Structures are given as C-alpha cells and as structure tokens.
Amino acid sequence: MKVRADVLRTYQTLHTWTGITTSLLLFIGFFAGALVMFAPEIDRWATSPEKHMPAIATERYDELLQKVLMEYPKAADSVTLHFDKSLSPVSWYEQGNGRGLALDEVKWHGTLNGDGELVTQLVPVNTLSAMLDMLHRTAGIIGEIDHHQAGVFVLGVAAFAYFIALVSGVIFLLPTLAKRFQALRQDGERKRFWLDGHNLLGIASLPFHIVIAITVTVFAYHDVFYGGLSQLYGDKPMFPAPQQQKIERQLTDLPKVSELVAHVEAHAPGYTVSYIRYANLTKPAASASVGVVNEEQLMRGALNDYVFINPYTFKIASSSAAHPDQNIWAKLVSAFFSLHFGSYGGELGRWAYFLMGLAGAGLFYSGNILWLEKRRRKGTQQQRSYQIMGALTVGVSLGALMGIAAVFASNKWLTLTSVNINHAYLFVYYASFFSVLGAAFVYGPARTAIHGLKLLALLCVIVPATSLLAAVIPATELWTPKSFEALMVEVISLLFGVFFWLLSKHVARRALQNEPGSIWYLKESKATSGISIRHTV
C-alpha cells in the first residue's frame, strides 16, 4: 500500500508521543488487570482456609437464612447467600459494605453444623484482589477528585491517547505490514528486534487493545457523559425513578430461597445462581440482587450477570441477563462491559485475557525501549531526556512488579502479626515501588534492573516456598493451598520467578556488550561477574 512519506512521518510522530507519555501508566494497569482476571482465586489463596465456613446442602439455605436473621437482626439490612461451595454459605458486613478498596471492613461468615446449629465467626476482609483492581484502574495514583479516585481520570486520559497511538500506529505500519508482520529480525541493530516485537504484539492483539482503550475512557468519564446528556434532558430524568413502596415487610412473610431461585432461573434460562444479596428486608424498599452465571453469554459484570428482584413479590426491577424481552440497548451495554472484563468464554476466556494483559504490558515496555534505542547517540554523552526516560522505564515498570510480588510474598507472613493486613499491603507496595524508582535514578537503569530482577525472582519464589514451609512445619500457623485454583496461584508465581531470574542474566550479559552511553551499559563488576558474553539481542 502506497502512503505519502510526509503522512507517514506525521502519524509516526503522533504514535510515538501518545505512546511514550502513557506507556508506563498503562504498563501497571495491564499487568495488574491480567492478575485481576483471577481475583476470586487470589482472595481464596490469600485467606486462611480457617476463615471460610463449610458448605451446606442447597435445601438448608432457608433454615440458615432464618437463623441468621433471628440471631443477628442487623443482617436484614444486607446479607448474602453464596452458592459457590468454596465460599462460606452466608456472610454479611459488620463494618463496611464491600464497595471499592476499604481497608477496615469486617464481615461475619456463617454456616450450619451437623446438628443444625448456626456457627459464625467475625473475619477482617482481605482486600488483596481489591488492591490489584485499584492498581488496574488507577495505576497506583493516589488522591481523589470529587469523591472519585484521581487515578481513574488520569488513566482515562491515558486510554484516549492510547487509542490515538493504536490508530496512528496502524496507519504508518500499513506499507510494510504484510512483509514484516511475523518477522523478528535478530541480525543487525538491536532496535530492529524491539521494533518487530513491538509491532507483532500490537497488530496481533489490535482488536483487544481497541476495546480496552474505548471502554476505559468511557468508564473513567461516564459521569461526565451523563452530565452532558442531562443538558439535553433538562428537568426530565434520564432514567425512571423507582416507585416508592409503602408496604410494611415482615420476615415471617419472606418466601423460600428455592422459590426465588426458581423465579430467577425462569426469567433467565440457562443461567445458574451464584449468590443472592438481600437488602432492607424489614423495610418497604426490600430488594434482592441475584448474581447469575452463563459462560456462553456476554455477561455484564466481571464474574456474573445481575437480576434485581423484589424478594417478597418476585417482581423483577431490572436485569442484565440475556432473556427474550431484553432490548437492544441492554444487549449492547452487556457486550460493552463483557468485552472489557473478559466475562465470557469460561476458563479459556479468562486465560486468554490474562495472557493478552501480560502481552499488553510487554507492548508498552517494548515501546519505551524502542524509543530509547532510537534516540541513543554514539558515545557516552546522552541527552537528559534519554537518561530520565531510561530511569523511569526501568523504575516504574520494575517497581510495580516488585511491589506486587512483595505483597504476595509477605501475605501469609503478615497474618502472623497484629497489623491490619490491608494497610500493610499498601505500605509494602508503595515502599517497594518508590525504592526501585529511586534506585533507578541513583544507581542507573542497568544496575537496578540486574539486581532488581534477581530480588523480584526471589520474591516470586517465596510464595510457593512459604507453603512448602507450612507443609513441613505445621506449627508455623501458615497454610498450604487447599484447592487447585490456589495451587495455580503459586505455580504461576514460580514460573514468574524463573522468568525474572533468566531475564536478570540476560540483562547482565547485555550490560557487558553495550557501548558506553547506553542505559544498559555497565562496567564489569560484581553485578556482571561470572557472566559469559554470548550473542544476544
């Protein structure tokens, strides 16, 4: 395809600067987002099995709910029945409400024993996956703007610029796309390898990246969009207000759980109920939010669709589940959310989004490296912008990885102390992040990368090593994985550890081969001693 040279240069410049100004924020968002694909498994891994109550038969949920409401009247305001056997059968908040990243929430867990007696325990909520989700949505940027996290707005701007980078990148690649799409040239200059790898990652996953860029922008600024629409609607509400109920509610009139489940499944054929969250059961505005799952459908939430129903009359207020009466607008909204969350396709879909999230992080990192390789001058004197961007690239990306790995490595050990584990998570993450970022500026990118990657590998290996220690010495009060999903968290951590260790060796060899002036150059020292020089890209 023939495109004028001046047009190509314009789009290449646009691609370069929109990419370089957003890449580090997006690196954090994509890596954390990849991990969030397995948020339930991470929370189960991070919490001692003793904190989960034994499952019960489905037909015992009515008995369980009635006993909870009788012995704990506060639960009538909000109580959740879980049908997932890996979770406690019932839970409700003593402090907090489960929305966003709250560090001091406390939740009751309950079940029935063999004699039909209610057994409960009060458990502080572990927010490990919520912290990862916060990093995914804000890139770790602290602060609030009008009761919203500032990082959400910043990442929204980054996502819009990222969309521009995608479009401009495709345009200036068009003339050589067919020829070089699957080429990874390892001969000649090193920047050719980074260029080919960057282009391959970007083009191969282009639809995924376009979806993420658009959805993140809308998620960040949906309130602004609604505010603009309100100017058109004037005093007329955009959404119909719910009708005020004046009927007094009595718990003795509450229908059976099995009846509510039957009505929901009749409304949404093919779905199974994962949880029922009752609210305001003793008030006129009583409601039930029901999570329903059908992996063959595009689901509105990250894990399920929603059906909002009156628990007394079974009148459905609204539903995101696919059903015959669902209008086209509801289907479009469900598809919009589902394509961002990856809540379709079952386990295969989740693993695909996990891998594409990691590949996306690699895409942004490789873009920065390519920028640095192209702007490196011959000799030892480099522009200040080159030195700063080199330190930022290593410091931010490695710092984010180090912070996340340190949180996972310290998780079980923190439970042995009296500290609030959720506060400790944030301290460990930000202390690790800023330590690595500072080291990149003080000691240089090459030295920081070599030693940092080794420490990162060690932190990843500590995760399964801690469970091994728990198995060998039970008196430590640590615990081992009790499910395949929890075991996979540790297997993935071990694989990350091996990868980062090998990467540290690669960076050390590269440091010996590079010319003075490169951010990767390092005179032979303890960091590179014992490293054999071989051809490497």
TrEMBL record:
- Where are the annotated coiled coils located? none
> Keyword Translocase, does the record have it?
no
The protein's UniProt keywords, in alphabetical order, are: Membrane, Transmembrane, Transmembrane helix
Can the keyword NAD be found in this entry's annotation? no
Q: Which InterPro entries match?
A: PepSY-ass_TM
**Transmembrane region positions?**
20-39, 152-178, 199-221, 351-371, 391-411, 423-443, 455-474, 486-503
Name of the protein this chain belongs to: Peptidase
